[in-house]
Amino acid sequence: MSNNYAGMRRALEGQPKGTIERCAQRLLDIRKTLTPLRTQKKDSSLLLATWNIRDFDSNKFGFGPRLPETFYYIAEMIACFDLVAIQEVNRDLSALEKVMKILGREWDYIATDTTAGSGGNSERMAFVYNTEKVWFRKVAGEIVLPDGHLVVSSKKVKAPKNQPDVEPKTVEMEQQFARSPFLVAFQSGWFRFSLCTVHIYYGADSGPQLKRRIGEIERLVEFFAERQDEASTQELDRSGAVENYILLGDFNVVSPEHKTMKALKSHGFVVPAEIDGEKVRKLGDHFYDQIAVRVMDKRFKVITGGMVDMYADVFRSNDGDRQFMPDICRKAIRRPTRNSRRRRRKRSMRNGGPGRCRIMHRSGWRSTRISQRITYRRSPAAKIHNRSNAIRCRAAACR
Q1: CA geometry: angle at 191 spanning 246 and 134, to 5°?
Q2: Running DSSP on this structure, what letter comes out for residue 239?
Q3: pTM score, whole prediction
Q4: pLDDT at 314 > cutoff 60
Q5: What are the phi and psi torsion angles at 122 (to 5°)?
């Protein structure tokens, strides 16, 4: 690890007493916890990960800006990998630039422009990679679907204001992705590949919006399958091999048996067994983040995979970490009373789904889902999903 921690004292100046010491100790704890992962970094392999860093870092949802120490924790975790796909980077790139400064000069990134519209949420997507292990092949772009392959979705159209007696009608429309997938060509050793990071439209748990979510996944895998199967001579490498494709990001997959996962595993794309289904997930974890591959190179092999618990060492719900939280958070994260649980269940039934309670915090947010006695918590550390998929691919260093 060669992260640049020389400026930590200056960056954390003005924070409450003990912040610098706590941050330094947490970084040591993270490094110790992730030692088994770091020891897998070799010249003959590639460590690849996807991470949805929620609202990074505009505070447009009003949950409060991240604590300055958070950027050091994020950088420490990214440094365990060779290449990381990041979703929900916002228009202001200053937060990402802070992380890059901590990572050091051997790290670089490529980011999209922001996606406009209500579905796009003004988000960017980015690839952060170690230039000593991975290099950019000078090809990058956002995926635009051709006519005849657009995502079909339904939309309610209201009648004009001067016709109040006319009922709204539902019409079908064809459109592009809510957030344009981002494709970049990389190489590590002999392994040449194109990564496409995505943040698929979520919408709702049922109805037309779920249909649109499934449609986006179907159109995405179909697009790359057709491109790979009908590769032109311009897309072949020097040895005449067809391009290898890896899709990764936040697919908003519901479960291994759901139509969202079936759509991802269609047209020849597979989710490696090492990270498929419940193999690397704990009870209550979501299946949103996935990695799917369609690789033609016979030398390619997935060796191992897993998920990283971002909150194993930082912003935990214990007395040691709770003392640094604002008073409102210390009160809010206490065990809910019987009456509060009953009210939350009633609210959940009115909303047609599991209850969600958001608690403001200076460094992020906390969300509690209650469904069939399974409690899923997102700690307030970095406003990110509680897990990050990681896949280790063999790529011999034949530079």
Answers
A1: 85
A2: T
A3: 0.79
A4: yes
A5: 55, 40
